[in-house]
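Re: the request from the purification team.
They wanted to know what the chain is likely to look like in 3D before they choose a buffer screen. I agreed to run a prediction and write the result into the notebook, where they can find it.
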Amino acid sequence: MIDLHTHSIFSDGELIPAELIRRACVKGYRAIAITDHMDSSNMDLIIPRIAAIAREFNGVQPVRVIPGTELTHALPGQLPDLVKKARELGAELVVVHGETIVEPVIEGTNRAAIEAGADILAHPGLISEEDVILAAEKGVSLELSGRKGHSLSNGHVASLSVKHGATLVINTDAHSPGDLINRSFAEEIILSAGLDRKQIDSIFRNAEKISKI
């Protein structure tokens, strides 16, 4: 399992990074990105700390730790500068909190995240066909979510992504220990989104490419 969207106590997660990494290891993870919720108010505090943890843990235990961010509820017009700043601070992976149907995300966030060059658009809800086409053109990955609520639109995201050749990834958006999943359950989520077993391996290969393992 490769999980490119998780949270620690640096935002609203329950676990310190060390325990999050250890529990991921027990679940059989090969890589985990710690992508706490951020905006301009806290990214300069969190990203360097996650980057330091990654340097400390990588190479001495089996799970590759990727320092990242989930830019959350930022104004669409702020995203270009926030994506750039996150990378300057040491984020190797930039996730943007998409227009999930269970939260009041500002309309236009999906498009702004894609145009800003985020790596992953998380739980993009009822994303428009035009935005999926743009994501495919720009190489921005779209997320199938294992998280309750956010997962309600997985089928919509999957069908449009397959239609237009957009890259898909499967992530947990984990906030607590019980949110972490093994590969077998991740495969069930993919199948539940209306995809078939032939597409499962390609989705995991996408995650391998992003995580560089």
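For the purification team: The chain has one domain: 2-211.
Please add any questions underneath this entry.
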